[in-house]
Structures are given as structure tokens and as C-alpha cells.
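Support request from a user on the community tier.

User writes: "When I paste my C-alpha cells into the form, the page sometimes reloads and wipes my input. The last time it worked, I copied everything first. Here is what I submitted, just in case something in the input itself triggers the reload:"
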């Protein structure tokens, strides 16, 4: 699928570059993907930067006054990209193994203790793995 097909499929030319999608985007607020710039990039025939920083929360799509499904555009772009960046693959395997995006640190444990909190419970990785395995997640 090329950029022209994506533009036509999602009717991206309706975009008026109002920035409503970007204002609604938590990733954009923290230096990630800028949805309205990504839409214009696709219209212009260029692959947008930082598509993997999209959280797929769909806030951009809900905020768009032109009813452009910006989140769907991100999904399509991911599907036609050259693959998932290694850092996201590592995080996915970490979640599969432990149920967490990051490993708990001794510092966090110490801070919890200082605050009088109980130790952090282990994530229920077994339940997560059962769901991912049932859905055919490629973890090998």
C-alpha cells in the first residue's frame, strides 16, 4: 500500500491542520508522534517520523473535527513499515516474561519501604501469557 492509497482510504485530504489531534495526543505532549504533522507527511507522500511512539489510544481520532481516523492511519503505517524497532520488541518480551514493562529496582523497593508501603506485588505474568498464547502472540 502506498501513501496515495492510504490518503484515499482514510480520506486524509479532509485534514485542515487544526491541531486538534495533536492537542489530544499524550505522546505528542511528551515529545513523541505529532499526529497532524504525520497526516500531512502521508498526504505529501513521506513516511512520518515516530509512528511507533503512538500509544494507539485513539484520542486523536476522537478529537478530529473532520472525523479522520488518525489512529487507523498509524496502524496502517505500522503494518507497511520495515518492522518493529528493537526497543519495542525488547519491551514486549519483557512484558511476556514478567508482566511488566520494566523490572522492579532495589531503589523502588527501598522507596516503598521508606513510605511504609508493602512490597510491590509480582505482576500476574502467567495470566497475561495465557491470553497472549491463546491469541497467537509470537514470543519465541
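"...and here is what came back when it finally went through:"
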Amino acid at each position: 500500500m502506498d501513501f496515495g492509497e492510504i490518503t484515499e482510504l482514510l480520506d486524509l485530504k479532509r485534514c485542515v491542520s487544526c491541531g486538534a489531534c495533536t492537542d489530544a495526543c499524550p505522546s505528542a505532549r511528551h515529545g513523541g508522534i505529532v499526529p497532524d504533522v504525520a497526516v500531512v507527511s502521508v498526504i505529501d507522500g513521506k513516511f512520518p517520523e515516530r509512528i511507533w511512539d503512538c500509544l494507539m489510544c485513539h484520542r486523536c481520532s476522537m478529537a478530529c473535527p473532520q472525523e479522520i481516523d488518525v489512529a487507523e492511519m498509524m496502524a496502517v503505517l505500522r503494518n507497511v513499515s520495515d518492522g518493529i524497532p528493537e526497543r519495542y520488541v525488547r519491551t514486549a518480551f519483557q512484558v511476556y516474561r514478567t508482566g511488566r514493562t520494566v523490572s522492579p529496582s532495589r531503589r523502588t523497593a527501598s522507596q516503598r519501604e521508606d513510605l511504609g508501603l508493602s512490597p510491590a506485588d509480582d505482576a500476574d505474568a502467567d495470566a497475561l501469557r495465557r491470553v497472549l498464547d491463546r491469541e497467537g502472540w509470537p514470543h519465541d
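Agent notes: The reload is a front-end session timeout and is unrelated to the input. The two ends are 29 Å apart (CA to CA). The chain has a mean pLDDT of 91. Escalated to web team.
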